[in-house]
Amino acid sequence: MIFEASRARAVDKLHNFVENNLSEYSKLRNFDFGPDNRSNISCLSPYITHGIISELEVIDKSLKKFSFSKNEKFIQEVLWRVYWKGWLELRPNVWTDYLVELNNLRNEFKDKQNYLDAIEGKTDLEFFNQWVNELKENNYLHNHTRMWFASVWIFTLELPWQLGAEFFMQHLYDGDAASNTLGWRWVAGIQTQGKHYLASEWNIKKFTNNRFQNIKLNENAPPKVSEKSYPLIKREFNNPQNVEEKNLLIFENNLSFEITDFKEKKFEKIYIVSNKNENRSIKLSEKLVKFKSLLMEDQKQRLKDKSIDCEVVDISEIKNIENYYALYPNVGENLDYLNFKNVKINFLYRSLDQLAWQYCNKGFFNFKNYIPKIVSTFN
What we know:
Layout: H1 7-20, H2 25-28, H3 45-49, H4 55-63, H5 68-89, H6 93-109, H7 113-120, H8 126-138, H9 143-156, H10 161-171, H11 177-188, H12 201-207, E1 247-250, E2 270-274, H13 286-305, E3 310-314, E4 324-327, H14 333-340, E5 346-348, H15 351-356, H16 364-368, H17 371-378
Parallel strand pairs: 1-2, 1-4, 2-3, 4-5
């Protein structure tokens, strides 16, 4: 499985999926046929996460092929990430607390053999070891497998979910603070208190076409417990009435300026902001760092092809730039750096997020009720 760091390749991938495989998506999406057979899913998430293609672009393409009712499950899955981001924006302390807990657990588990065996793929569970190796080799796992993986990590290997979430973030091409952290919390049973996800032998066998044998799991573990609660924080995501001709910063989540809501605005110069491992709480694998770097270079070249003045800069260099806006980077490592350095920025928010995030105050099943409204607003 190869993910080329290119918008052109991402657009091709979207086109091929919609034309050839979208019709069977609802029926086949939960099957993991292995890394060499991913035709039943889109594999677009690494590109969506980095803004190489947008959720609206994907949805629009799908609706030109099939009706909303035919597409509904696919559209819901595309908008899951928007929902998770909105949920976390309204409760940013979940991310802050996670990093504190993670730092403490790192020190506690750094020399524990069961943890080291898990991240090296040397456990007694051969199916799990294969997933570890697949993650490191391909920087991607099927979504269903991510759920199984997290459940095995937490309830069978009895390791802290925080360390598992870090392991995913270190390797996944599509890892982001919201989807990853909240997904692991959900499996553990603390995102929805008392409701956890337990992997089962029959489920793994069925949805992998019996690729794995000797599946031994703890299928009776109780959910994890957290006494922390996170009340909603009232936040406004408003753009200035008039976007002036200033410089613009874009981060790793918005690497296709030409498809953003602000593509028609005139900016003096666009700065593509890179964030090195030395500034991150979670250190990324070399392959993931390179993938992000190549995507930034791809964006830089596309801007230059349009005669737009641009430059890739390290996040530490922002202090040397004057008079700018920034496309909002979302809760996560980049925003953490800006807050830690007390950098004051006028953010520009996506219209999709401005609309959708107001419906992220409750669970996803409530959010789903607003998906037709969200989709019809932009189509």
